[in-house]
Amino acid sequence: MKTLLRAATAATLCLSTFAGGAFAATWPAKPITLVVGYTAGGSVDLVARTIAPELGKRLGQSVVIENLGGAGGTIGASKVVKAEADGYTLLMGSGSEVSIARLTNPAVRYDGEKDLAPVTFVGTQPMVLVGKTSLPAKNADELIALARAQPGKLAYASSGVGTPLNLAGELIKQQGKVNITHVPYKGASAMATDLLGGQIDLAVMVLSSALPHIQAGRVKAFGVTEGKRSSAAPNVPALAETPSLKGVDMGVWFGLMGPAGTPRPVIDRLNTEMQAVLAMPDVKKKLAEAGVEVAPGNPAQFGSFIKRETGRYRTIVQTAGIHE
Questions:
Q1: What is the value of pTM for the model shown?
Q2: Is the peptide bond before 28 cis (omega within 30 degrees of 0)?
Q3: pLDDT tens column, 230-281
Q4: Fold of 31-125+252-320
Q5: DSSP for 8-75?
Q6: Which fold has domain 126-245?
Q7: Is the pLDDT assigned to residue 190 strictly greater than 60?
């Protein structure tokens, strides 16, 4: 009986592999939808629009961007989770909707680690801690000293509770052992307006959004949140260069994903073409100008990365008591 069961199982696996291979041989036979869980113009959208045309050329089918903004990217991610796992609906994912959302919001029912299939890790973009020009602190070391001297008096803005900007702000507080009040905004635009107007002391922003204001001298840049300086802003130090903030190393990451159960041959084909796209000089240049450091990884590497990052997010969230 065991021999028969083993034979039946092997036959089923062979048929499944054959079916997946046969499907992949004809895929893609129609346009592919690349879901972005944010409105047009943001960093995730920029990455998707930089990659989509070249990926489409290599696949021989159009890759159409669908922006589904709202709920911190979870509306878009939910659509991909529920989509047919046939390679025709993909997600340009980021840490916010893939990992952080379910840690801070019990209403999020999907699990990004289990319900989404990693395809290709694209890279990371740093965030940056900036402040109003009237702040007396000239650098991160002086800022930490100022915050310690006035517990709870300073406030920092983020684009919302549970966003990577919020988690980066809490990581800075935890590493620096300071009490700075978090003021969540409903979006990056309103946050930037209040910072420039001096209504808020500090803000954590995506580097590409903050850079024009930094270069024009409209805000003070205390440091980027990744462990090293960004090539897009080499004159802005890393917060980790300040001894009390040496553990600050967190960026916004991007990666291509599909619904769980997407045939392996399709994932492998997508990954092969994505690696080729990300190696194109024009693509790398455009992403670099936005502060995105390209570091393409295969599905297994991407999956391991997500698992590690989710663990780090969980520690920050639990320590800070972040919830929506």
A1: 0.89
A2: yes
A3: 999 999 999 999 999 999 999 999 999 999 999 999 999 999 999 999 999 9
A4: D-Maltodextrin-Binding Protein; domain 2 (3.40.190)
A5: HHHHHHHHHHHHHHHHHHH--SS-EEEEESS-TTSHHHHHHHHHHHHHHHHHTS-EEEEE---GGGHH
A6: D-Maltodextrin-Binding Protein; domain 2 (3.40.190)
A7: yes
